[in-house]
Write a structure and sequence with these properties.
This protein is mainly alpha-helical. Among the domains are: 7-21 and 59-203, Tetratricopeptide repeat domain (Serine Threonine Protein Phosphatase 5, Tetratricopeptide repeat); 220-315, Alpha Horseshoe (Serine Threonine Protein Phosphatase 5, Tetratricopeptide repeat); 414-488, Tetratricopeptide repeat domain (Serine Threonine Protein Phosphatase 5, Tetratricopeptide repeat, Alpha Horseshoe). It has 26 helices and two strands. The protein has helices spanning 25-34, 49-65, 69-81, 89-101, 105-117, 125-137, 141-153, 161-173, 177-188, 195-203, 222-232, 235-241, 252-264, 267-279, 287-299, 305-313, 318-327, 331-342, 351-363, 367-379, 387-399, 403-413, 423-435, 438-450, 458-470, 474-486, and strands spanning 7-14, 17-23. It has a two-stranded antiparallel sheet with strand order 1-2. Strand 1 and strand 2 (17-23) form a beta hairpin.
Length: 497
């Protein structure tokens, strides 16, 4: 039990980051005294609340200056929230630092959150880890939880599933609900409690445990797919689908919003459209069209689509149907077959044959094939690299209504010599990231990382990259790794794989 003068009463969870807030005893008492009571004449008297707040603020500052750590922490939170004082992150950081000097556990944790996000001070995840570690030593379950996640990421410290499990378990044992959900994810990955399993976990390399606890991450199937889209999609889409949507009941308005997100390059939206086609929802059943949607999701860095592709291509008669339709000049089938060859899933064709199928589909103005053909010219897959040809094809796809192609055109400009980024491009990246485009999200992160069109802000860059990495983006994870390596301290503690 922590001996703090201020009782923490609420937490805010965003992208797996937990921030403790506090209320003073007088505020709690005031809330309790008025809760559940009928209106009385005394309650209708207008108080001079301004004078009271000024007096309370004066008293808080006095106690903070006298060195009371709980008052220093409370004052920091009020500056952070703009509650009773003008919002001032720098002053919040100052008073949190004062409270950490007095070994106040909540201050260690909250200063770690600010440091991890670069709010009010320089972004430094290594210093943040040290602060979380100091809070964890004082028994704070939220700090154990954050440390557990960090031990899965291989970014700040090396990936160590034994240490990760131990920290998360300590948080779960204290009743911290997000940690309990994380333990379920550990077990799903084959890392249950027990010495034998832990020894295996020490040497097993796995994907980071990127969990967002705003959705049910332990569910499977179509509900999980919809939850993915709810997490990353626009507010309109979330409202249209509702809090507990069922895929078979998706209305036409929601379907249109999903289509818009797919055009922007949202892999979750593409997977949903693939599921619709695979099961005959909002149209006839078509497993070839479903495969095409899943392949587009893979192109846009989906973490789940490849598994769905393997499931569908293993169905009886799929290969024969795909070949028959492709040979009859079905553009969707041609695109799908070329994509399966490119991914090494179907080995019946050579790269040259697959390129001819892709070119045929593009000639029929199938937009996904046009974009993919541009990707071939950009990367040099099956053809000689030709950046000008890639951009030309993406301009064609953009004219066909594919926002993804327009995002790609703007994204490649970031990597030219002396790139210039205008406000309209930043606005477009931001809007399309809101629509669910991982590509736009990563491009915007790069702009913040390098200071292109926006003030340089590593904290904002890391948050954008981290969110995209949670969704399965390897390029975002690589960018995060690069940012960490550029400021990595010396020492065995900070070595990663």
């Amino acid at each position: 039990m922590r001996k703090n003068s201020y009782c923490p009463v609420a937490i805010a969870v965003t992208a797996g980051i937990v921030l403790w807030m506090g209320l003073s005893p007088s505020a709690i008492a005031q809330r309790k005294s008025s809760a559940g009571k009928e209106t009385t004449p005394g309650m209708m008297i207008k108080e001079s609340s301004l004078d009271y707040r000024l007096w309370e603020s004066f008293q808080l500052i006095r106690r903070a200056n006298d060195g009371e750590p709980a008052a220093q922490h409370e004052l920091a939170l009020r500056y952070l929230q703009g509650r009773g004082f003008p919002a001032d992150t720098l002053k919040a950081v100052y008073w949190l630092g004062k409270a950490t000097d007095k070994e106040f556990d909540l201050a260690f944790f909250n200063l770690g959150i600010l440091t991890l996000n670069g709010w009010g001070l320089e972004w430094n995840p290594f210093q943040a880890f040290d602060l979380f570690e100091r809070a964890a030593r004082r028994g704070m379950p939220e700090a154990h939880f954050i440390m557990g996640l960090m031990y899965t990421e291989d970014l700040v410290v090396g990936q160590d599933w034994k240490k990760a499990y131990e920290h998360v378990r300590k948080a779960a044992d204290e009743g911290f609900e997000p940690a309990k959900k994380a333990l379920a994810e550990f077990r799903k990955r084959g890392i249950p409690e027990g010495p034998d399993a832990r020894r295996q976990a020490d040497t097993t390399k796995q994907k980071p445990l990127f969990i967002d606890f705003d959705v049910d991450t332990t569910s499977t199937g179509d509900k999980a797919l919809i939850n993915d889209l709810l997490k990353e999609g626009s507010a309109e889409l979330r409202k249209a689908l509702g809090a507990e949507p069922r895929i078979a009941q998706t209305d036409s308005n929601a379907y249109a919003l999903i289509g818009r997100a797919a055009r922007a390059g949202s892999p979750e939206a593409e997977i949903l459209l693939g599921r619709f086609r695979e099961y005959g929802i909002q149209g006839r059943r078509d497993r070839i069209a479903a495969t095409a949607h899943y392949l587009v999701a893979v192109r846009n860095e989906s973490a789940r689509a490849l598994g769905l592709i393997h499931e569908i291509v293993g169905q009886e008669g799929f290969g024969e149907e795909l070949e028959r339709r492709a040979k009859s000049s079905d553009a969707v089938a041609q695109f799908a077959w070329a994509g399966l060859v490119a991914g090494g899933i179907d080995r019946r064709l050579s790269g040259e044959q697959a390129l001819k199928l892709l070119q045929s589909a593009a000639d029929q103005r199938y937009a996904e094939a046009v974009i993919e053909l541009g990707m071939c010219y950009q990367s040099g897959r099956w053809v000689e690299r030709n950046q000008a040809r890639a951009r030309e094809l993406w301009r064609v796809a953009a004219s066909m209504g594919k926002t993804e192609a327009f995002i790609r055109l703007k994204a490649v400009e970031l990597f030219t010599d002396n790139p210039t980024v205008d406000p309209a491009t930043i606005r477009m990246f931001r809007e399309q990231a809101e629509e669910g485009s991982i590509l736009a999200q990563v491009a915007l992160g790069y702009c913040y990382e390098r200071g292109l069109g926006v003030p340089k802000n590593p904290g904002d860059a890391s948050r954008l990259y981290r969110n995209a990495a949670q969704r399965g983006s390897d390029s975002a994870y690589d960018a995060l790794k690069r940012m960490h390596d550029e400021i990595r301290p010396a020492g065995e503690k900070w070595k990663v794989g």
